[in-house]
Amino acid sequence: MTKPLNIGLVGYGFMGRTHSNAYKRVNDFFEREYRPVLKAVCGRDAEKAEAFAAQWQYESVETDWQKLIARQDIDAIDICTPNNTHAEIAIAAAEAGKMVLCEKPLSMDPEEGERMVAAVEQAKVPNTVWYNYRRVPAVTLAKQLVQEGRLGRIFHYRSQFLQDWTIDADLPQGGAALWRLDVGAAGSGVTGDLLAHCIDTAIWLNGSIRDVTAMTETFVKERMHNLTGKVEKVGIDDACAFLCHFENGSLGLFESTRYARGHKALYTFEINGEHGSLRWDLHDLHRLEYFDHRDESIIRGWHDVHVTDGDMPYMDKWWVPGLQIGYEHTFVHQVADFLEDLAAGRATSPTFAEALETQKVCQAVLSSAETASWMSV
Amino acid sequence: MTKPLNIGLVGYGFMGRTHSNAYKRVNDFFEREYRPVLKAVCGRDAEKAEAFAAQWQYESVETDWQKLIARQDIDAIDICTPNNTHAEIAIAAAEAGKMVLCEKPLSMDPEEGERMVAAVEQAKVPNTVWYNYRRVPAVTLAKQLVQEGRLGRIFHYRSQFLQDWTIDADLPQGGAALWRLDVGAAGSGVTGDLLAHCIDTAIWLNGSIRDVTAMTETFVKERMHNLTGKVEKVGIDDACAFLCHFENGSLGLFESTRYARGHKALYTFEINGEHGSLRWDLHDLHRLEYFDHRDESIIRGWHDVHVTDGDMPYMDKWWVPGLQIGYEHTFVHQVADFLEDLAAGRATSPTFAEALETQKVCQAVLSSAETASWMSV
Amino acid sequence: MTKPLNIGLVGYGFMGRTHSNAYKRVNDFFEREYRPVLKAVCGRDAEKAEAFAAQWQYESVETDWQKLIARQDIDAIDICTPNNTHAEIAIAAAEAGKMVLCEKPLSMDPEEGERMVAAVEQAKVPNTVWYNYRRVPAVTLAKQLVQEGRLGRIFHYRSQFLQDWTIDADLPQGGAALWRLDVGAAGSGVTGDLLAHCIDTAIWLNGSIRDVTAMTETFVKERMHNLTGKVEKVGIDDACAFLCHFENGSLGLFESTRYARGHKALYTFEINGEHGSLRWDLHDLHRLEYFDHRDESIIRGWHDVHVTDGDMPYMDKWWVPGLQIGYEHTFVHQVADFLEDLAAGRATSPTFAEALETQKVCQAVLSSAETASWMSV
Amino acid sequence: MTKPLNIGLVGYGFMGRTHSNAYKRVNDFFEREYRPVLKAVCGRDAEKAEAFAAQWQYESVETDWQKLIARQDIDAIDICTPNNTHAEIAIAAAEAGKMVLCEKPLSMDPEEGERMVAAVEQAKVPNTVWYNYRRVPAVTLAKQLVQEGRLGRIFHYRSQFLQDWTIDADLPQGGAALWRLDVGAAGSGVTGDLLAHCIDTAIWLNGSIRDVTAMTETFVKERMHNLTGKVEKVGIDDACAFLCHFENGSLGLFESTRYARGHKALYTFEINGEHGSLRWDLHDLHRLEYFDHRDESIIRGWHDVHVTDGDMPYMDKWWVPGLQIGYEHTFVHQVADFLEDLAAGRATSPTFAEALETQKVCQAVLSSAETASWMSV
User: Fold this and answer.
1) pLDDT tens digits for range B26-51
2) DSSP secondary-structure letter at B204?
3) Is the separation of the CB atoms in B26 and B32 below 8 Å?
4) Cβ contact, residue pair C283, D306, below 8 Å
5) In this model, does residue B213 exceed pLDDT 90?
6) Which residue of B has its CA nearest to D288?
7) Which residues of A touch C295 (CB under 8 A)?
8) What is the pLDDT confidence band of residue D176, given thresholds at 50, 70 and 90?
9) What are the residues facing D287 on neighbouring strands?
10) Of D167, D255, D373, which has the smallest distance from its Cβ to A253's Cβ?
11) D25, D265, D319: residue with CB nearest C321
12) Which positions in chain B touch C198 (Cβ < 8 Å)?
């Protein structure tokens, strides 16, 4: 028999759906001691929260997150609200002794993040941040190959996250699905939304970043604001790119934008080492390309690995070789790991403390762009 | 409030998992009048059936499919057992007034299939066969583009399904996961297992097949039989290829094998018409390649369409552009359509009657290979 | 100092250009004892022949191929005329003691081919047929890998040659650049033009073909004939596909058409063996894909080999890794090999005798399609 | 009848071969008033120069470039020597009234480049720099599409040139084929060798670059020097990356390295505009990928354009659709354009003056890396 893990979800937007799905599916595929129970969903709009609860079969609804946190029957608070609310909710949840699962990015800035880390560490509550792309099987396999030392000394790391959905100048900012365009709610534009993923994976695969030089751009300077009804200055960065040095001496190159026609969600990374290289992209997420210079010269070329076999990360739990899984499974994997770590008394990476490092790099990037100078992380 | 649709699943193997998953997930993503309820799973091995029920949260277990069919609280029988049991179970279920959802291929041969069709038609029970690949969004989009007449007169259709998992001569045949290698349980080898998918999609996209010339091969002639413990002659076809004429005058080329190193489950099709072409493969199932000769000549080339946008089939129900779904979603889509059709009083394609046509082509293919002559379907 | 090899070219069409280019370039890149000299070009239209001679710097022009053959200063006759003239010219050239280089296909039918082989063998003159695609570096590398036994026992061979340039029903047949559509000049349609390449490579890589079952189609039944000015029945095959058994027990699948929208000259082959597989296509001719099942499982995938390194066939003669060569170089390679073989007193593959085997397969294919039955080669 | 254009080539290394090949082939494919004549090759090593002359059929040999320039029978001086000799030779040639064709990069630094520009402009001699990649048909087609305004306002430009041939720490620097590793001969490492190509194409396609922030790295700090026989400090940059703003407001991202395992000569660019995008890479140089947001949504995707048709740049001169050309043809095209411009009295782009702009960007990049600050160009 499994033990229930009662989930209180805050926020019923896009991320609310991905997390709910993960909680509902995890035990069908992963044998775990704990089984998440969709105990309550919380949102300010009661009607929408009710509809969400009905669709996903949450047992109850709250409209005040403080009440949710106060409930005795809730074990874990999952934060899926806009970035500017993460800190307050997370800290309150930790103080109430709840486990906290927080959507990325951790916080609006490193200072907020520090307080969040302090709160969960002081409360000694399990905590994790949903940098879900680490748990694409092909990405986890990349981590394994790097860790085994197959690439040798690393020379280069490059990563990009390209989208094209905000090019239309008539798109408003703010509110509901568009809070990511509102600097007040999001803190930054592509830096916190997209580059944060690139940075999290980079640090995981290649270690810490030492210093950065960056540039940002806001192509559309003013947009109608949904909350005020007025045309207002756009405060977010539409595009951001930076160069960096990693602590291991390798060079980094990062870029992110919502103005790259033809790319829906092209998140890529590539790492080049002395002996070999790896590359991956989210548009074909089940594939990992691997190059090994030690292959015999006449048959040397990038291996196109279809990461769907049972000896590859997470894949023994799903179907058979050749049959792919998708985006949503990364969240299932994160829950599966969280449940396993919970039973084992281990932290689940990335913890708040780990996610704080990404926040610091984001901050250095934004500062560098603002000051037009290299910044240490 | 949704109405329950009580499911009685027969078989707890690979397909039992894909169907159970589909039933559990469909209402989270598709608004439907009916909601499948995992009422009972049936399997001869009580212990395994219990374990399966526990994992998937079936309410009860049966070890005799006839008892399952006799239960008043079961609305639909879903058949996930080896091919040689489909007819008997399906006919009994129909006669008991149950809806029947049957794994493909429909039957061991057209004669059996005719009796199954007669049974469901006489009983007037909703029925469908799980040719799931029709409901890959990219494949459904292909159907839409063909139906709109975008390709013009069709000249060519080619399809293949290549695997490489039975090359090892030490692999036994028969029993459990290996019943597909046992001609007694499977009826045929790759023809019924893999080519049947190719044929179903082909007929759906390009109409009926008129005649065929085929060849089959069994590369490993004898294998240990798991059920008898003896080395026995292998009765299935390891590989099968055929040429054909479609009723619309186009030429067809089909191939399937389990001896193609490097291909895990490479199911592909391509269709060439007067104005344009389409191609697709299961290893990157969210992509559809489209060629349109009417494009301006200097920018003419295959369009690489990442079928993940909200205006593409089924995709408004999932995530956002660029984020892919996978294999298992094809089953969710089939359930979603079945539930919608049920509410509307419509048949769900492919019905038993439609699947019988595929069975007839398979039979013609096997006969052609045996007689080394062209066969009409 | 190099020795001159005086070339007499018959025909100044597309193939006349590719051969002339090869003769002019070969010694710039390949050290050889012989140096081809463009001594004379022969064509019935004096004005066009003069223009061609001027462009390519031929020393002289003939309008009667018999005079060309009679010239004492000509060492080798190169036949670039339509298929229906190959036999007569080649036999006369051989009888005059000239070396003969003949465009593919060798002949209109095996009977003609037999006489051509007899002529060159009796005259003991060096002879070769321009199946140029064998000498794409990636294809030659494929041959090397197969010969080294890397693939193990072969199970499957498949090949296709897809074009789309004759779909327009208003395209006339016959004369000048369109003689390939005129059965009188070409003998057959895609079978002799395109499948002959597929078959030549297949035999080279995988050995002889035992028997075939084929179908052909002529989609546009009548076309204006350029030579008669009348709408006439089209005698060629627009499309041809066949299944076959190789002598080594593997299965073959071949297809060719000029009605596959989106494919300009997509010549592909793939070979699947016990241990590995190879595939190649002409649209990216410098790449060879190689799969080796003996690779470690977690990094197993198709190797994408960019065949441009100095240790790959012919590539030490050209540029540096990563820099590709193209179509025309296959002809340079054939001349380079011919010159080397000439100096060494060796035959240059494919000889007339080898090309005759391809002719026999073509004939079996056409007969099979006509009789709707399996034919032995 | 064509007019001779007498070429005096200085240098017989890799570039000497590519240029010689271009001169010899151009008139076979391009009708031009002028025909290059390989009058003389000049190199300090008489024996090697003789061998080169014999292979390429140069009429004569010089060992002193000043003598070559002094010859009355030479019309044009082509400079294929290491970078540190470009200025002296080019200025002398111009002063002697010779046309000058100079390998890239133009010079060691902008100051040298200014003097070279002044010399050719004062002498009013035709001049061009061999930035050959502009004349890959797919790249020229990209220029055409950009010029037609198809992409709309440009947001992003990114380019990289990745190689992996200097990773081995035992590779020496200096002399013969390795002068590119010797800062004294090359001036810089990948910046002048590889990034210069990226920058030239970028300026051509997207206009001038305003400012840059850059980083460089030398991974192997000391190497045996071939000329001194001693282990010496490596003065070149092994890797260089920079961010920039273009004058048109778009953002640029550039990277180049010789330490990217798996990439032989992966030169890529991508440009993203309001309506569409383009991308290309040298490893498959005959393909251009084009995205047009104005395509109907359900068939919207990158067009994979195989740039081999007669209506595409330069391709009417070569073979037929589907048959590719390669690296060396870019030089043929540059000669073809030079000859045509010469007859028409026009300058051939890039002129020395145009190439100077690239030199200035390279200088700004190196200065930025050295000072760790943004630099204006």
Assistant:
1) 999 999 999 999 999 999 999 999 99
2) H
3) yes
4) yes
5) yes
6) B299
7) 303
8) confident
9) D306
10) D255
11) D265
12) none
Interface residues of chain B, partner chain C, Cβ below 8 Å: 151, 155-156, 158, 162, 164, 167, 213-215, 217, 219, 239, 241-243, 245, 251, 253, 255, 257, 259-262, 272-277, 291, 293, 302, 372-374
Helix (H), strand (E) counts: chain D: 11, 17
The verdict on a CB contact (< 8 Å) between A327 and B324 is yes
Condensed to tens digits (0 to 9), the pLDDT of residues A184-239 reads: 999 999 999 999 999 999 999 999 999 999 999 999 999 999 999 999 999 999 99
Closest to D282 measured CA to CA, from D134, D106, D128, D158? D134
> Contact at 8 Å (CB) between C376 and C360?
no
Please choose, from the candidates D83, D85, D36, D35, the residue with its C-alpha nearest in 3D space to the C-alpha of residue D65. Answer: D85
Handedness of CA A158, A164, A169, A171 (dihedral sign): negative
- Cα–Cα distance, A166 to A160 (Å, whole number): 17
pLDDT of residue B177: 80
- State the smallest CA–CA distance between residue D263 and chain A in angstroms: 9
In D, minimum Cα distance to B298 occurs at D312
Cβ atoms of residues C162 and C257 within 8 Å: yes
Q: Which residues of D touch A251 (CB under 8 A)?
A: 215, 217, 239, 241, 257
Give the pLDDT band (50/70/90) at residue C175. Answer: confident
DSSP string, D184-219: HHHSSSHIIIIIHHHHHHHHHHH--EEEEEEEEE-S
Identify whether B105 is preceded by a cis peptide bond (ω within 30 of 0).
Answer: yes
3.40.50.2300, 3.30.497.10, 3.40.50.720, 3.30.429.10: CATH of A3-132: 3.40.50.720
Q: Do C327 and D325 touch (CB under 8 A)?
A: yes
Please indicate, yes or no, whether the overall pTM of this predicted structure exceeds 0.95: yes
Whether residue C12 contacts residue C50, with contact meaning beta carbons closer than 8 Å, is answered with no
Question: Does D298 contact B292 at a Cβ distance shorter than 8 Å?
Answer: no
Min distance C266 CA to chain B CA atoms (Å): 13
Question: According to the model, what pLDDT value does residue D254 have?
Answer: 98
| Whether A289 contacts A303, CB under 8 Å | yes
Which single residue is written with the structure tokens 């748990």?
A135
Place of tokens 């044929």: B199
| A-chain residues near B309 (CB < 8 A) | 264
Size of interface C-D (CB pairs under 8 A): 95
Structure tokens at D230: 């001693």
Beta carbons of D301 and B306 less than 8 Å apart: yes
CA C187 distance to own-chain centroid: 16
Cβ-defined contact of C301 to A290 (cutoff 8 Å): yes
| ipTM confidence score | 0.97
Q: Fill in the amino acid letter for B159.
A: S
Q: Give the CATH number of domain D133-376.
A: 3.30.360.10
Does the pLDDT at position C1 exceed 90?
no
pLDDT tens digit string along B308-340? 999 999 999 999 999 999 999 999 999 999 999
Are D329 and C326 within 8 A, CB to CB?
A: yes
DSSP single-letter state for residue A11:
-
Question: CATH homologous superfamily for A134-376?
Answer: Dihydrodipicolinate Reductase; domain 2 (3.30.360.10)
Whether residue B264 and residue A306 make contact (CB cut-off 8 A), yes or no, is yes
Query: What single letter denotes the amino acid at residue C166?
Result: T
The 10 Å Cβ neighbour count of residue A63 is 15
Cα of D248 to nearest chain C Cα, Å: 33
Q: For chain A, what are the domain ranges?
A: 3-132, 134-376
CA-to-CA dists, residue C145 to C245, C289, C301, C326, C334, angstroms: 22, 12, 17, 22, 20
Instruction: Note whether A55 contacts B27, CB cutoff 8 Å.
Output: yes
d(CA D211, CA A253) in angstroms, rounded, equals 18
Residue type, A365: V
Q: Residue B187 in 3-state DSSP?
A: coil
